[in-house]
Amino acid sequence: MLFNSMPYAIFLPSIFILYWIIPQKKRWILLLVGSYYFYMSWNYKYVVLIFYTTIVSYVAALLLERTKKKYLKNIILMVTLVLCLGVLFVFKYYNFALGSLAHIIPFEPHYFKILLPVGVSFYTFQTLSYVIDVYKGDIDVEKHFGIYATFISFFPQLVAGPIERSSNLLPQIREKHNFHLENAYYGVHLILWGLFKKMVIADNLAVFVDLVYGDIYTYTGGSIFAATLFFTIQIYCDFSGYSDIARGSAKLFGVELMENFKSPYFSTSVKDFWGRWHISLSSWFRDYLYIPLGGNRVSQIRNCVNVMITFLLSGLWHGANWNFVVWGGIHGMAQIYENAFGIKKTDGNAPFVFIRRIFVFSFVAFAWIFFRVENIHQGFYAVFSMFKGISHPATYFREGFTAIGVHRDLLPYLALYFIPLLVFDLVSLKKDIILWISTKGAVVRHVYVIMMVLLLLFYGYIGQSTFVYFQF
Q1: What are the φ and ψ backbone dihedral angles of 454, each rounded to 5 degrees?
Q2: Are 258 and 169 within 8 A, CB to CB?
Q3: Alpha helices (H) along 5-115
Q4: b or e along 355-381 (b: 16 or more beta carbons within 10 Å of the residue's beta carbon)?
Q5: Rounded to whole angstroms, how far apart are CA atoms 369 and 383?
Q6: Under a CB-based contact definition with an 8 Å cutoff, are residues 223 and 403 in contact?
Q7: DSSP structural state of residue 175
Q8: CA gap 199, 201 in Å, rounded
Q9: Any idea what the Cα angle at residue 386 is, between residues 383 and 387, rounded to 5°?
Q10: 123, 124, 145 from 54: Cα distances, Å
Q11: Which residues make Cβ contacts (< 8 Å) with residue 159, sequence separation at least 6?
Q12: Residues 6 or more apart from 354 whose CB is under 8 A from it?
């Protein structure tokens, strides 16, 4: 069931109405049943994987609480990591590992013909963070299995995050919620903004991106540049749009999910970018991998190794292919460079900040090439072909954009895509626009809703399209 589908448009209001009608003590049951139904609507067979990881992590946490000896706690933790990550390995990385090994040791690999379960990377990391936090003594064990199962499967953030910490979401599943009209306003307004980013911006730009990257060797020069620029906007609007819909949906039930994006394309350094992009994942790797490796409390060389390991594994998390590893490595190298030369987030004069933002945006857009291509060979082809003909800029851009169907009469529509996003993210650096709209009078709220609905109806991509991060 997709957020941008009619079934979800029926499902969400139905759960919302029932949630506020039934007694407080029964609400977790509704959320649990609804969440499992939500996931089963995609593929009912794979719901067993969520149930499996839920049971394993639940039992492991109980054992950790009752175990006093350190070496036994270590054994329980290691077994839990193997059991949970084992699922992720089999379904996501087995074929990749086998194929990579076959290039080193000649043999005939026997691949699994299985479909990657949607959201497996997200809910696996969520269960692991819970177990690790219990192991470290940072949180108390949740003994109510139903509450814990609801925490793992909570449908707004089940398949593409944000990857919630138990310290934030678990108490909210358990605590009593009273209905507040302001929360409903905020939730609906945020959902509409997320749908706008997904259906109007991301899905329409995807047409041009898929045209080029779906047959990359046919294109060169400005066409690859245009497709890369469009993909830079597409993936942001697609993923942040999902996160907005997830947060808005949760808000309808009085639940506050963490903010996963904070105007990332206005970053002034690569490190700043990763503090604004997919925050739940970057903070997960920071807390559960980078810091345990020693973080920056070690020698400079060791710190470089820690940074690179973190980013390489982050790239691999995104996909079982070497191009994702290269993408992660590019960001890792950039952060090592920034650390070595003391480049940090800056609040300097406006022209300097503007230049820094342009530079970081260009770097991130360039790195996205290896994220979008299907393999490394395509990535290097795109990199070496993209700048052919750029010595004649006017011809380069005109022919490049025209070759993929972006003509002059299409520019007003592109402005419709980019300008609202640019203004929204710029203002969001200092102000929560959705909150501002939600707390204004009825006229402002109604105008916003009507405007967004009309934009979705007239300019939204017709037909259900999946979200980019569903493949991870």
Answers
A1: -65, -40
A2: no
A3: 6-21, 27-40, 47-66, 70-88, 94-104
A4: ebbeebbebbbebbbbbbbeeeebbeb
A5: 8
A6: yes
A7: S
A8: 6
A9: 110
A10: 9, 9, 9
A11: 39, 42, 118, 119, 122, 470
A12: none
Report the distance separating Cα 312 and Cα 327, nearest Å: 8
**What whole-number distance in Å separates Cα of residue 121 and Cα of residue 314?**
11
For residue 119, give both structure tokens. Answer: 């959201």
CB of 131 closer than 8 Å to CB of 57 = yes
Token pair listed for 408: 């002059």
* Nearest to 179, CA basis, from 17, 28, 15: 17
Q: CA 272, 277, 279, 280 torsion: positive or negative? A: negative
Q: What is the dihedral of CA 453, 458, 464, 470, to 10 degrees?
A: -70
- The CA distance from 340 to 356, in Å, is 17
Rounded CA separation 39/50 (Å)? 9
Largest Cα–Cα distance in the chain?
A: 71
Cα→Cα distances 351→169, 270, 355, 356, Å? 41, 18, 6, 9
- Count, residues in the chain: 472
Beta strands in 377-430 (DSSP E): none
Q: Give, for all 472 residues of the chain, the pLDDT tens digit.
A: 788 888 999 999 999 999 999 999 999 999 999 999 999 988 888 899 999 999 999 999 999 999 989 999 999 999 999 999 999 988 888 888 888 887 788 777 777 777 778 888 999 999 999 999 999 999 999 999 999 999 999 999 998 879 999 999 999 999 999 999 999 999 999 999 999 999 999 998 999 999 999 999 999 999 999 999 999 999 999 999 999 999 999 999 999 999 999 999 999 999 999 999 999 999 999 999 999 999 889 999 999 999 999 999 999 999 889 999 999 999 999 999 998 887 776 666 778 888 899 999 999 999 999 999 999 999 999 999 999 999 899 899 988 989 998 887 787 778 777 888 999 999 999 999 999 999 888 999 999 999 999 989 888 876 667 777 766 6
Q: Which residues are catalytic?
A: 318
Q: What tokens does 163 get?
A: 């990857």
Report the distance separating Cα 253 and Cα 237, nearest Å. Answer: 24
Rounded Cα distance, 141 and 154, in Å: 18
pTM score above 0.70: yes
- Residue 137 to residues 69, 170, 299, 365, 437: CA-CA distances in angstroms? 14, 16, 28, 40, 41
CA distance 287 to 280: 11
